[in-house]
């Protein structure tokens, strides 16, 4: 079923968030339905099991916000773990940093990687060929459990919304395992859903991370293709976070090459918590 012009919608609480265009591929993998559609405005867009993941038009709203607050604050050579991220966007932003020594990408669904490399080449681009990258087709929860203590400096959780096979990535036990395998000053960076469309999940993530880690901070921005548009990313550590500090000159060059992220944008985004979320967290 390809080259058919049609509407593809994400349905959420009585609302539809859709794109019209040509279906480039529609395939069911071992884990989920995968669709790539090409829309006149958003370009190529990826949907997994009825939920929008990314598009060429707005992928940087998501990936730049996930990656740069953490990596721009890291001083030393770093080992990085990406859980999920099969579209390649998080890798693309990570490889901009010369101080990263190793990147492990753990993606459970190999078909997402294959389809993204073929139909969404503009997202991952040459990052897929970076020598520091190792791709592991594996379950992220199992990977974390078998990793030794204090191994990674940054962990990025670039997962889809909670579902039958991703629910454990939002669990207390998983976050505790992430804390165990992080270095003492390491940072967990995770997409933390929408305070509007997925309010209960969002609050649960924030409360859980606050209980497990010494400090956590949440930033808010926009991913237009997602339900309600507003999205969040949360950063947690066992030591104090210095996310408003750029620690080396290379970051200035990286900042100039970004479409969305810069330090001023980031600092403002960390001050955008809706008051209804503040109240629930304080209750």
Please describe the structure with a list of short key phrases separated by commas or semicolons:
alpha/beta; Spermidine Synthase, Chain: A, domain 2; Rossmann fold; 2 domains; 7-stranded mixed beta sheet; 5-stranded antiparallel beta sheet; 30% helix
Total number of distinct structural domains: 2
Q: Which secondary-structure class do the elements indicate? A: alpha/beta
Strand-and-helix sequence, N→C? EEEEEHEHEHHEHEHEHEEHHH
- The average pLDDT value, as a whole number, equals 93
What would you give as the CATH superfamily of the largest domain?
Vaccinia Virus protein VP39
What does this entry look like structurally?
The chain is α/β, with parallel strands linked by helices. The chain folds into two domains: 5-55, Spermidine Synthase, Chain: A, domain 2 (Roll); 59-282, Rossmann fold, CATH 3.40.50.150. Helix content is 30%, strand content 33%. The chain has ten helices and twelve strands. A seven-stranded mixed sheet has the order 8-7-6-9-10-12-11, with helices on both faces. A five-stranded antiparallel sheet has the order 1-2-3-4-5. Strand 2 and strand 3 (33-39) form a beta hairpin. The longest helix is centred in the C-terminal third of the chain and has 14 residues, at 199-212. The model has no long low-confidence stretch (mean pLDDT 93).
């Amino acid at each position: 079923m390809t080259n058919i012009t049609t509407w593809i919608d994400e349905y959420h609480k009585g609302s539809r968030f859709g794109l019209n265009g040509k279906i480039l591929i529609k395939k069911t993998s071992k884990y989920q339905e995968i669709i790539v559609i090409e829309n006149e405005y958003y370009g190529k867009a990826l949907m997994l099991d009825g939920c929008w993941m990314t598009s060429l038009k707005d992928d940087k709203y998501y990936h730049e916000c996930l990656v740069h607050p953490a990596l721009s604050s890291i001083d030393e050579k770093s080992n990085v773990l990406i859980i999920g991220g099969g579209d390649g966007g998080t890798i693309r932003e990570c490889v901009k940093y010369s101080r990263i020594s190793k990147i492990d990408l753990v993606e459970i669904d190999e078909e997402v990687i294959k389809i993204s490399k073929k139909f969404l080449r503009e997202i991952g681009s040459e990052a897929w060929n970076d020598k520091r990258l190792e791709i592991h087709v594996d379950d992220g929860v199992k990977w974390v459990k078998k990793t030794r203590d204090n191994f990674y400096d940054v962990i990025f959780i670039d997962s889809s919304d909670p579902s039958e096979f991703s629910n454990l990535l939002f669990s207390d036990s998983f976050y505790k395992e992430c804390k165990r395998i992080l270095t003492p000053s390491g940072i967990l960076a995770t997409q933390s859903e929408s305070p509007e469309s997925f309010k209960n999940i969002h609050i649960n993530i924030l409360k859980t991370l606050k209980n497990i880690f010494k400090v956590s901070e949440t930033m808010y921005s926009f991913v237009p293709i997602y339900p309600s548009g507003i999205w969040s990313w949360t950063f947690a550590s066992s030591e104090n976070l210095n996310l408003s500090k750029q620690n080396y000159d290379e970051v200035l060059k990286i900042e100039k090459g970004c479409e969305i992220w810069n330090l001023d944008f980031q600092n403002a985004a960390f001050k955008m918590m809706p008051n209804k979320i503040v109240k629930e967290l304080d209750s």
